[in-house]
Amino acid sequence: MRTPLLCFLHSLLVILYVAPASAYSEAETSWPETVRFDTGGLSRESFPKGFVFGTATSAYQVEGMAKKDGRGPSIWDVFVTIPGTIANNATADVAVDQYHRYKQDVDIMAKLNFDAYRFSISWSRIFPDGVGKVNWKGVAYYNRLIDYLLAKGITPYANLYHYDLPEALEKKYMGLLSYKVVKDYADFADFCFKTFGDRVKNWMTFNEPRVVAALGYDDGFFAPGRCSKLVGNCTAGNSATEPYIAAHNLILSHAAAVQRYREKYQAKQKGKIGILLDFVWYEPLTRSKADNLAAQRARDFHVGWFLHPIVYGEYPKTMQYIVGKRLPKFSKAEVMMVKGSMDFVGINQYTTYYMYDPHQPKPKLTRYQMDWNAGFAYNRKGVPIGPKIHEEVYKLAHMQAYSYWLYDVPWGMYKVLTYIKEHYGNPTVILSENGMDDPGNVTLPKGLHDTKRINFYKDYLTQLKKAVDEGANVVGYFAWSLLDNFEWRLGYTSRFGMVYVDYKTLNRYPKMSAYWFKQLLSGKKH
Ligand code: GAL
């Protein structure tokens, strides 16, 4: 237990050692050797042999060059142009310009002792129209990135889809709502395996398909911004059916890509392929049976929606029962393709909520979120579930109406990993995202003093280790994110990075948490 006095002294010590920002050269990653961080006893030795530590980003959030070098638009390029959608009406046209600064970013990763980098490949940078003509400049970019990663000893983990469907396919056949996307996606994936698979041995098909389906088609908060009239301010959509159709096509697309990889490439290239799922831990608010069932429904509608078909070949029974005819069915042949379609599962874990049974008769409004028939709570008997990380951020983004989602609840990490172990046959898991943000307006040098982030990482990693020590088959951990970047609806008003980006100059400044990782990972790989 650290007393408040100790915490205060620690912060003071840390502040005393931080030089003014002007003292840093760009990408400078040295730090007074005298500073030793508290890693909570964690080191490489605390984790199993070969455990991989990396950082994660996604194409649209970091690359920039959104309209250049032949890239076609994705649904996010269109979405961000709707006035009032993104905080300060920002776009990711430039983002943090990783397209040009990738060498510098990879150098930073290497200096911080990371083993791996999880990035995503922008579909519309490779196929500007989603299909057909290849943009070779885009291919060349990913070749440069991959080659440089390997040259610096960083293992590439390539994700093929991070919210960014080519707009051409949205226009052509309504994107994920059409079964046609399955073949087009598999073709794109096939091209990537063929082109980059000699060097990329770790593939991920989709990031957070649940977010894609729920935020894209239930509440319209993310692109393509579709929802029912009574749900939100969308121009079109059907929140009762479309989330389920989109999710179904996402699962089939994932499975079709895995099939291609396994049939055509895996034996020769010797890589692995998986999917990335977000998983909030849902803890029953009380010990009542009703609240326990509500929490279970929440887990089924969240991670079970995708993991159940992939592991067991069908949607969770709770979903089949509640959603009924609105839930698409897998044909026998599709079950064969979907079941077992992963070598590992990536889990993005940030936060935890209490769930309770609202004891309501059937909700009037039929939509995905209402199908859960479960209420969210953030306090138990007046005690908050954990400190709320970033209320300020939403105020900054003029979105006070939104209750912000990130509560600092490290024990949720343990519960999530234990749940996956127990309910899904202890699959190989990569903890593929974890992190927290600071408000976007924090300036230098204050923005570098991220002691809160250090504690966040330390506490969550401690819980991850506990799950691993008890047998959860977790083989890697990726922090979100390497550097501050375009945070979707929040634009640049939220900073998730362990490296600070000055948005005027795009210079990079590693924060204290980056040095914390450097120390954590300083031991010999074993
Ligand atoms: C994840 C998402 C990332 C990043 C992060 C922080 O859900 O995959 O793109 O934005 O959340 O909000």
TrEMBL record:
Alphabetical GO biological process terms: carbohydrate metabolic process
InterPro entries assigned: GH (IPR017853), Glyco_hydro_1 (IPR001360)
Domain of life per record: Eukaryota
Record key words, sorted: Signal
GO MF term (any one): beta-glucosidase activity
SUPFAM superfamilies, per database record: (Trans)glycosidases
One Pfam family it belongs to: Glyco_hydro_1
Signal peptide (residue range): 1-23
Homology family: Belongs to the glycosyl hydrolase 1 family.
PANTHER family associated with the record: BETA-GLUCOSIDASE 44 (PTHR10353:SF28), GLYCOSYL HYDROLASE (PTHR10353)
Protein name stated in the entry: Beta-glucosidase
Organism from which the protein derives: Tetracentron sinense (Spur-leaf)
